Structures are given as structure tokens and as C-alpha cells.
Amino acid sequence: MTVDVLPEHGTDHVITLTGPERAEVETTARHLADLAPRLLDSPEWLAGAREASATLPVRLRQAIRRFTHDAGRDGVFLVRNLPVDAAALPPTPNVPGSVQRETTVAAAAEVLVGLNLGEPLAFREEKSGALVQDVVPVPGMEKFQGNAGSVALAMHVENAFHPYRPDYVGLHCLRNDHDNQAGLLLASIRNALPALPDEVREILRSPRYTTAPPASFGALGADPRPHGILSGSWDDPDIQVDFESTHPLDGEAEQAMAVLGDALRSVRRTFVLETGDLAFVDNRLTLHGRTEFTPRYDGRDRWLQRVFIHQNHRRSRVLRPTTAHVLVS
Ligand SMILES: O=C(O)CCC(=O)C(=O)O
Ligand SMILES: [Fe+2]
């Protein structure tokens, strides 16, 4: 069978808010920014945001609903012209592990969209378990293969090692870099699949790979279990790979992974995000990475805010000792 069974179009899922729609979202986000206790991680605040998320402009909610039904060939949903209150934006943070704890218009807007895709989540061991995390360059970490770096970041599924990795990764641009050079790289398995011969697909589906967690994930790092990179439907598989931390267990598996890498590279697209752009990547279908850029550490550097979303919140209950949103291992 061929990939005829997939949607025909590329990035169907782009919506640019009109002026009135943006104003509507801004009114709601401002209300939430002022809502007690003004802390993004508090269950009370999140409850208020959940109610408010049902009042976003209908056209936006319809677009999200189409995306959660089918993420399209590219596996990305892009909302443009969201409010970020640029005039009131503080200097870009530049410390390791920076997160957003206090409510802001930009963070509220991102959470409002995210709540229409599912439930936010975070990992206790990562970025101190904050639901909204800063993606910013950090002095001295330029070569780091993580979001504090500024060299090219290898293509990856987010938290590829983790059984409850996010279904969607939201990246909201508050500021791009000075040179407008930093690009979010995206490559979907739906676009790459036609370039994979059947025998390569077969190898990629077998448990001949391990994926290491980042050092910060502690005990789970001890003995990663072998897994296949592709799973599920033969014609429209899910993908689980991180080109920095997934390791083939034999030579054939290594070759198959190289073919996959080439196929993904050939369909890779670059999105240079602007202030007010929010990309939600379907983390089951699409890998992301980043081009190189040059930070200046002058308070005006690139600044994204990231949220993770689960479509099925119930599934991760076993790792959440309370009904809150933080997974403990
Ligand atoms: O900096 C970027 O555009 C992406 C960084 C990244 O992979 C992440 O924050 O998950
Ligand atoms: Fe990432």
C-alpha cells in the first residue's frame, strides 16, 4: 500500500487571528493574567483558565478541533497574531532552567489555546515541573543539545524516552533573535514515509533501539528498554526517535536510522517564528529541532515559551500522585 490513505495537503493548519479575534483573546488573557492567585501552576488558576478556554473565538476553536482530529501531513498547527503584550515584556531571561510561574498575557494566551487541545502537563525532573517553560539561550551553554543552546539542535520527538511524552508541544514566540535567523525545524513521518523502503520500515518497527533520557531524569536513565522507532499503522505510523539520544543496537538498525534521517531531512521545513506566533507540534508524528543562531545576552534575545499537552490526561494518572499536572518520573 502507498500513503494515499493520508491527507493530501501540507500545512492546512495555519490560522491568523483577525484584529477583532486577537482583541477577544487579549481580553480573556488579561482577565486571566489578573485572576488569583496569579500563578500558572495553581489548580485554582488553571480551573479558571479551563472555563475561559471555551470562550475563545469560534473560528480558532474550529481550527483546533480539525487539528486534533487530524494533524495533516505536516503535523503542526500554527496560530498567528496572538496577544503577547510586547510593550510590557521584560528582558529575555538568560539563566538555566528558567520558567514562567506568574501569569502574563502571553502565557495565558498559550495556555488558553493548549487547553483546547487537551490538558497541560510537566515532568517534575524537568524545568522544576513548571507548566510554562522558557526556551531561551543561556551564556556558556551555546553548544548544549537542549533548549538553552544556540547551535543547531538535533531533530527530536520531545522526551522521546518517556512512555507519557507529550502528545503536543506548544512553542510560543515572544521574541525572535536579533538576526531573525533562528528557525524552528519540523519534519513529519507522514511526509518522510514514502522515501522509506519496506525493509527499512520493517527494521525501524522492531525493538532494536534505545533512547536515553536527559541526565536530569535520574533513575529512569539506568536501563532504557529497547523500542521500535515506528509503531502502529504500517501506512501512517507514530514515530519515537531523538537523533541525539536514540541509539541503534546493531549495524542494520543503524543503517535504517540513517535512511530515516535522510528521508526526514529531505522533507524538513523551517518556520521562523515571529512575536505572537504559536506552533503546536504533534509529537507523535513530527520531529522538531532548531537552526543555529547568535545570542547577544542583552535582554533582547530569542524567547519562546513552551507547554506540553496530553490528549488523554487519564493515561498518565499512574505517574501523578495527586490529580495535578506534574508527572513524577
Ligand atoms: O528552540 C526551539 O525552537 C526548539 C527548542 C526545543 O526543542 C524545545 O524547547 O523543546
Ligand atoms: Fe524539543
TrEMBL record:
<dbReference type="GO" id="GO:0005506">
    <property type="term" value="F:iron ion binding"/>
</dbReference>
<protein>
    <submittedName>
        <fullName>L-asparagine oxygenase</fullName>
    </submittedName>
</protein>
<dbReference type="InterPro" id="IPR014503">
    <property type="entry name" value="Clavaminate_syn-like"/>
</dbReference>
<dbReference type="GO" id="GO:0017000">
    <property type="term" value="P:antibiotic biosynthetic process"/>
</dbReference>
<comment type="similarity">
    <text>Belongs to the clavaminate synthase family.</text>
</comment>
<feature type="domain" description="TauD/TfdA-like">
    <location>
        <begin position="73"/>
        <end position="307"/>
    </location>
</feature>
<dbReference type="GO" id="GO:0016491">
    <property type="term" value="F:oxidoreductase activity"/>
</dbReference>
<keyword id="KW-0560">Oxidoreductase</keyword>
<feature type="binding site">
    <location>
        <position position="156"/>
    </location>
    <ligand>
        <name>Fe cation</name>
    </ligand>
</feature>
<dbReference type="Pfam" id="PF02668">
    <property type="entry name" value="TauD"/>
</dbReference>
<feature type="binding site">
    <location>
        <position position="288"/>
    </location>
    <ligand>
        <name>Fe cation</name>
    </ligand>
</feature>
<dbReference type="InterPro" id="IPR042098">
    <property type="entry name" value="TauD-like_sf"/>
</dbReference>
<dbReference type="InterPro" id="IPR050411">
    <property type="entry name" value="AlphaKG_dependent_hydroxylases"/>
</dbReference>
<dbReference type="InterPro" id="IPR003819">
    <property type="entry name" value="TauD/TfdA-like"/>
</dbReference>
<keyword id="KW-0408">Iron</keyword>
<keyword id="KW-0045">Antibiotic biosynthesis</keyword>
<feature type="binding site">
    <location>
        <position position="158"/>
    </location>
    <ligand>
        <name>Fe cation</name>
    </ligand>
</feature>
<keyword id="KW-0479">Metal-binding</keyword>
